[in-house]
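in:
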């Protein structure tokens, strides 16, 4: 069980999955809830959305303590990646009722609201997120209000995990046309040993939204999107 955790942290997802399956089969101690949760992380990391969704329903249906909000949030992420934006909004509202302090839920809600055409509500959610995390809030806001320079300035001073920082900067600097920097960010994201399929797929979704905003160099952005999608497909195929 603990070896699976270490292997997962090292990005050795296939070895982690094998240990997780063994742990679930043995079914001892707290592994009954811990192991499916780690398997969800593995499935999201390699793009196995159906298996992840099945395990997430396990948590939601059983009301597992301290896990329902996260489960609803991850279900919403799957809905968004599958083009089910209205279902994502519903799942996020459920997650927010359980844990109204979770910034990650609010950030995903901004995306879901934008994609269902509720731009006013998306702006309000982004402004609320900005109160607790200026860089993430401004990045979300920029996709509706186009406050790109303010978002870039906030990111320059933000303390974020490296992978998240590069993803946000890729979106913001694509909007600003800083293509050499965008290429450097994408190269680093795709080369990271711990790159996760769901993070790459969500970045694809954000850049696809950006294609429809005013002032975007669509030709150059489309070329970067093609490379990023190829990276997603390659990672998913590796674990197919």
């Amino acid at each position: 069980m603990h070896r699976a955790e270490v292997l997962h942290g090292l990005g050795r997802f296939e070895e982690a999955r094998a240990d997780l399956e063994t742990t679930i089969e043995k079914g001892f101690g707290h592994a009954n809830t811990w192991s499916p949760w780690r398997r969800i992380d593995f499935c999201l990391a390699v793009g196995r959305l159906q298996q992840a969704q099945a395990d997430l329903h396990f948590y939601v249906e059983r009301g597992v303590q301290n896990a329902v909000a996260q489960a609803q949030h991850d279900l919403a992420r799957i809905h968004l990646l599958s083009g089910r934006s209205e279902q994502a909004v519903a799942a996020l509202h459920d997650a927010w009722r359980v844990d109204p302090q979770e910034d990650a839920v609010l950030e995903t809600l901004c995306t879901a609201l934008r994609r269902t055409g509720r731009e006013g509500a998306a702006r309000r959610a982004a402004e609320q997120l900005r109160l607790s995390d200026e860089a993430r809030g401004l990045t979300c806001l920029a996709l509706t209000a186009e406050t790109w320079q303010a978002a870039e300035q906030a990111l320059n001073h933000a303390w974020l995990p490296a992978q998240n920082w590069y993803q946000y900067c890729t979106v913001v600097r694509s909007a600003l046309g800083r293509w050499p920097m965008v290429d450097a960010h994408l190269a680093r994201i795709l080369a990271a040993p711990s790159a996760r399929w769901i993070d790459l797929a969500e970045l694809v979704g954000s850049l696809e939204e950006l294609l429809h905003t005013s002032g975007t160099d669509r030709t150059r952005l489309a070329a970067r999107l093609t490379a990023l999608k190829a990276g997603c497909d390659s990672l998913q195929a590796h674990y197919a």
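note: The chain has 14 helices and no strands.
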